[in-house]
Amino acid sequence: MLEARNLKKSYGELQAVNDVSFKVSPGQLLGLLGPNGAGKTTTISMLTGLLPPDGGAVLIDGSALGGDTDPAKRRVGVVPQDLALYEELSALANLRFFGALYDLSGARLEQAIDAALTLVGLVDSRKAAVKTFSGGMKRRLNLAAGLLHDPDILLLDEPTVGVDPQSRNAIFENLETLKSRGKALLYTTHYMEEVERLADRVVIIDHGRVVADDTVAGLHARMPAPANGERVTLESVFLGLTGSKLRD
Amino acid sequence: MRIPLFAMIRKDLQVYLTDRRAVIMTIIAPIVIASFFGYVFAGASRRDEPAKIAVSIVDEDGSSVARAIVSGAEKDRNLKLSEQTRAQATEAVRKGSVSVAMIIPHGFGDAAARALFSGRSRPDLTVLYDPSHAAEMGMVSGIMTQYIMQSVSAEAFSGDSASRVAEESLQQLAASGMPPEQREKLRNLILSVQSYYAGAPPAGEAKDHVPGLAMPYNVSEHAVTSGEDVAYNGYAHAFAGMTVQFVLIAAVDLGIGILNERQRGLWKRLRSAPISRRLLLAGKAASGSLIGLLSLLISFTFAIVVFGVRIHGSIVGFLAVAAASAIMATTFGILIASLGRTPQGVRGVSMLAVLVMLMLGGAWMPAFLFPAWLQQLTFVVPTRWAIDGLEAMTWRGLDLSAGLVSSAALLGFAALFSLLSLWRFRWEE
């Protein structure tokens, strides 16, 4: 459904993304991991149409994603890392606005809002100003805003940063539900346990290149079992592939 | 694309209305400040009488000439005269309680009468003035010249010392080497004038009889506005200047708001939707222009209802200038967002730019007070067109074409700002 094919992007001398390729299929959650500066954000920006690739293509069902107004962008929902919400407005007003960006209006828009708010458990807070929400509620509303137009593909950029365990668990359950509905989910995070719980497949990138593309079990199998009898974790695999050196 | 565009406009209006500070800055503040400036500057226009200039006069002479000067000046409709000592008058000017003080020194009357014929040994008349009211000094000097000439000539021709003054003057002329036949003609002239005044009816019996030299004309004053019954309303200028000022300040806030939204990641989310970059900027431009227009219209409605400002020109022209002003200001705000990187970095520079535009545009003081070269130069500033256009449609009462010229100039600036914004806007983080 969503394919990154040989994506390349440079900023002057810096090759931020170099020949990155992967696929996300319907009903699958792909975890995209990488240390700071590995090229994750640039890759996500190209997948969402914010940045044009210097080389390669973003394909949706085999068709290359075009410019700003490409109708194929309707099939993609974005849940950005930042809380991209208007704090002064109510949850309802925010969702009405983001829904209208995808040409939703009238009864269709109201139904979509009801469905999204129900999914994230914010029906009772629909009329409250976002600035009165807790961090977890804002994260859930952020997710709802990306789901309004019922996209086939959902790109989630660190959607659980700074939320309490209850809200994080609620978001995970939402994502499981979406997966079961056949949505293709791309999920970036620095929390390895989230990927271990949710991901069907994991892509690890470093220095702009894909260094691993496998299932969680497959990645575990790449590392020898520790001598102390502890089990292999995704974090140890990640550190084994990307090194322990601090990144800026 | 209609639904996203309307949604962007509606959202920005909702955000604006929930921001109490923004509403105060765009609606309340211009009304309050324009009302204050209108009251201060519109004083003269509210009365039939002109604003009087506060003048101190110091009579150290005490002669009949000096008394006549003081008496004449006291009756002048343009002056608010007070007699003081030299020390009091100097202090009053220094403190700014009077604009001008005129000191008639001892011996002024005699010396001035003699100098009338000989032109020599002219006495000094000291004028003290507040340098911040230099224009008023010129006006007072002009007004006082009338009373001084009248009083001195009356004394020279008909006063108690007229004969003595004439004789002394002629002796001085003789000493100067004037040929005897010319001196005799001048003597005859002086004696004839003295004889005329000696035989004239006493003051008060003949209407319009004024001894001495009188002003040979009356000034008929007519304020030229949109009509004979239309008075200049200083509130019209104050509201034009202040509403344009706050619409521009709101535009700076708009630009900073765009930068804030970019920092908060909102623009990434907007751009991930299938809408064009032009539409995104158009949405901002439309909502900003609507808010600016709302501010202008509410402020002027207040001025119309409370202060009697009237649109004596074209209503269509007024609306066109108001709309074009709002569009110009909004595109300026978007340009700020295009050139700036962070909200913090752009605030100071953009406010400085706005203040310069307002100063040169005549928002604080009418542009006609500027030097001629500056008046021409300020046409390169869009605020000048906005304020001139609003004034043209209100108290000047000019026709639609004047409004359309201002509107076209403002839209030209808006087009320039838009092109620069599209060129320089940083879409990629």
Description:
The complex is a heterodimer of chains A (248) and B (429). Helices cover 34% and strands 24% of the residues of chain A. With 248 residues, chain A is of the alpha/beta class. In chain A, a hairpin with a 2-residue loop joins β4 and β5 (63-64). Chain A is globular. In chain A, 45% of the residues are buried. The model of chain B has no long low-confidence stretch (mean pLDDT 85). Chain B folds into two domains: 2-44 and 237-424, no CATH class; 51-197, abc type-2 transporter like fold (3-Layer(aba) Sandwich). Chain B is mainly alpha-helical and 429 residues long. Helices cover 66% and strands 5% of the residues of chain B. In chain B, α9 (234-263) runs parallel beside α12. Classes of the chains: A alpha/beta (248), B mainly alpha (429).
List keywords for this structure.
heterodimer, A: 248 residues, alpha/beta, 8 helices, 34% helix, B: 429 residues, mainly alpha, abc type-2 transporter like fold, 2 domains, 4 strands, 66% helix
